[in-house]
Amino acid sequence: MSHPYRNGTSTRGRPSRGHGRQRPRAAARPHSGGSSGEFALPATVTPALPPAESFEALDMPAALKRTLARQGLTEPSEIQAATLPNSLAGRDVLGRSRTGSGKTLAFGLALLAGLDGRTAEPRRPLAIVLAPTRELAQQVADSLDPYARSVGVRTATVVGGMPIHRQARALRQGVHLVVATPGRLRDLMERGDCVLDRVESAVLDEADQMTDMGFMPQVTAILQEVPADGRRMLFSATLDRNVDTLVRRFLHDPVVHSVDLSEGAVSTMEHHVVHVSPTDKRDVATRIAAREGRVIMFLDTKRAVDRMAEHLLANGVLAAPLHGGRSQPQRTRTLDQFKRGDVTALIATNVAARGIHVDGLDLVVNIDPPTDHKDYLHRGGRTARAGESGNVVTLVLPGQRRDLTRLMGRARIEPRILGGGTGASELSEVTGAREYSGVPVTVRSAAPPERRRDQAPRGRRRPRR
């Protein structure tokens, strides 16, 4: 097969490394003005190629198709079928679809197909994927790994919280594809360990969260270093006005496809609200956490997460905390324990709201209701993935009811109201809530507490200065 960038000419008829040529900007588009804050998607100007009916029909290397077959994948999801024929042809893509719908392969297969048989130079990757969190970046890398190996593509995951010198060494050895969080990639660029002048494809995954987390300056600086005529792909479960700036500035004549505007449209996901009193809230959450099977439970702050995890462990529940205050090795091991079932209750902040996929997870609980409808959608998106069923339960105090009603309206969700109190039979029916043992358990620590550089080892006195 022929690849759009292998002969030095892009599919738009311009030199593939025309650094001095400014990429045309898309015309400004009117905002929708809706309550959700989402902008009006641009129309596809140049007609898109027809959707693919199967992976076999796509113009991809045979090794990728064989790997898909081994993974049990024969028919693409809707977002994959619509975008892959166009991204494989070198078109820019703007895609919106719910979590768990296959966005990673929608852009990943196109990237890997274009890298098949290529040579990776030291410090100069050919493709980059930007993700807002370490967990999402790692999941993208893990998901693409078997496909990358099948076509001989070397990848590197570049995230904070891990030794930067190891990541720099991997880049110096030469990689085709870098999956990164924006901050760490900028650090490596400033050190001269990563140069983007050969990047032909750049992907923004969950772009709206990157803008919400304040990564817009880093993302803009990174995309400005990428050759202007390369391929850009932007995928997200929600798109708001902050993302519109990136679309207008960096995407050229994109193929636009939108699936499942709201998570509330997922027919296999049910939403429930439990009205509780302040005195009953923790007991209700504990009864749910003591269920058979796994559950992710969200709270607003790191301190609240740690306290809840300690409380659950003291009451016989295999719980573990996950938040940005823990080291990356701790976070990675905690997720592995949860996926294996060694931990049954994952207590987390919004750091776990995206980028975590656990097969068979059927329950998400908001112990603290989110304040933003997008956070609600993404928290809930950890369940009912890839056609599976699931429930999202939110515990609501009396003073929070009005705000949650507004949030549900913006998310276009009509929840079922469950009976309040700790003895509600409906709660047990939906969540499997049950009495807890009160017998303390321990979960193996993910990693020893990190010691500050200026902190003396135990048993030694630090000399006075």
Describe it.
Helix content is 33%, strand content 14%. The strands form two sheets. Strands 3-4-2-5-6-1-7 form a seven-stranded parallel sheet, with helices on both faces. The protein has a seven-stranded parallel sheet with strand order 10-11-9-12-13-8-14, with helices on both faces. The protein has 15 helices and 14 strands. With 465 residues, the protein is of the alpha/beta class. Helix 12 (328-340) links the parallel strand 10 and strand 11. It has helices at residues 62-70, 78-88, 103-115, 134-150, 164-173, 182-190, 207-212, 216-225, 241-250, 281-289, 302-314, 328-340, 373-380, 401-410, 425-431; strands spanning 93-96, 127-130, 155-158, 177-180, 201-205, 231-236, 255-258, 269-275, 295-298, 319-322, 345-348, 363-366, 390-396, 416-418. It folds into two domains: 62-261, P-loop containing nucleotide triphosphate hydrolases (Rossmann fold); 264-431, P-loop containing nucleotide triphosphate hydrolases (Rossmann fold), CATH 3.40.50. It is globular, with a radius of gyration of 23 Å.
